[in-house]
Amino acid sequence: MTVPKPPMRDALVAAAFRLFLERGYEQTTVDDIVALAGVGRRSFFRYFPSKEDVVFPDHERCLADMTEFLGRGGDEHDPVARVCDAARLVLRMYAENPTFSVQRYRLTKKVPGLRTYELSVVWRYERALAEYLRRRFAGQPDGTLRADVIAAAVVAAHNNGLRSWLRSDGESDASAEVDHALALVQRTFTPSAGPDPAEDVEDVVVLVSRRGAPMWRVVQEIEATLGHPPDRQN
Amino acid sequence: MTVPKPPMRDALVAAAFRLFLERGYEQTTVDDIVALAGVGRRSFFRYFPSKEDVVFPDHERCLADMTEFLGRGGDEHDPVARVCDAARLVLRMYAENPTFSVQRYRLTKKVPGLRTYELSVVWRYERALAEYLRRRFAGQPDGTLRADVIAAAVVAAHNNGLRSWLRSDGESDASAEVDHALALVQRTFTPSAGPDPAEDVEDVVVLVSRRGAPMWRVVQEIEATLGHPPDRQN
């Protein structure tokens, strides 16, 4: 019985990480990696444009998946819920391989160049979410502004949850961490949880009241807000 | 009468930008810059660690100003308003020199390395805002999560307004653009504009109603939401 060899791309990633952990990232060359993986330099550069890219081998695929997922989303999807689900695709990529993700997290914290590389990847995810939201909010007041703000909030929430999981060495529940964080963003930005800034706010009254408040006080507050009793107006 | 020479640091920035615009960023070396400015290489590196740093000569000072400004903020300041004001320090830096800011914006769009550099600067501003908010929200439920999300939202709103101004070639009103964008974030995250996620939401009823709705319908909706009429409960 023969054990199948891992695909060359996986072998290169495995060799690279073994060396990064043993010698450090800066001290490892592409020549070292290809020697350990038993392939030529040209094979390395067929899969990875640079040494940095081998640290993040799955982001291009994940970005493509995210763009495709958002492209499939029609008007039947709530736009904020849709971008939250798109962010969950990134989490899934990390959670599929906890050991690798935790090792990379430690490596990225130590190497400023990798941190910068990661920021540019995060920025591309954020742009993908923002562009989807800009399409969904097209023609609405402050459409691009709201798109940019919500995309940034979703990315920040996702990364907060993801980092909690990575700091737990992959021991905590990744999905629960990220779901909790994204739920806060959805509560904040979904119209049913408050007034939609895209609607004419002049037409809407928002009243926040303690659950135990007596009804007469609630009515009084509404009347005070409106400036006149609406049942006499109609 | 003698015209005073500009300080050496300003002369280096001016020489660098003249060459970047004439020849392109990649085609300009540090040697070209120091030759035009009439100083030695060591003078350049005394002010700027690398060629990239001369493109963004004021961010370090601005980051220090922001950190100092946030450090001075006590409990008397609304935390969200304070980070919005901190973001306005960045805008002021750009608006102080519109021609330079617009030139740099065009340059940064063309050179991927500068774009990456800028992302790491933006990330440092965002961390400064988030760290301030984490201190303010310390001990509150989801304090760090809310801090990260609000910091990201403030940066995204600021950058949306800033980019609008830069795309107008500095012709529009920079402060008005950014104030408008930050106002949306303040409305979204300031407790008086809606329920505070840090409070026990179980205790609060939010009702959104059309201004023209008759009072009996408003009361009916509140009762339906509560599951029982609150005036009989108390």
From TrEMBL, chains A, B:
One of its GO terms (molecular function) is DNA-binding transcription factor activity. Keywords: DNA-binding. Gene3D superfamilies: Homeodomain-like, Tetracycline Repressor, domain 2. InterPro entries: DNA-bd_HTH_TetR-type_CS, Homeodomain-like_sf, HTH-type_TetR-like_transc_reg, HTH_TetR, MftR_C. Residues 29-48 bind DNA. PROSITE patterns: HTH_TETR_1, HTH_TETR_2. Residues 6-66 form the HTH tetR-type domain. This is TetR family transcriptional regulator. It comes from Streptomyces flaveus. The lineage of its organism: Bacteria, Bacillati, Actinomycetota, Actinomycetes, Kitasatosporales.
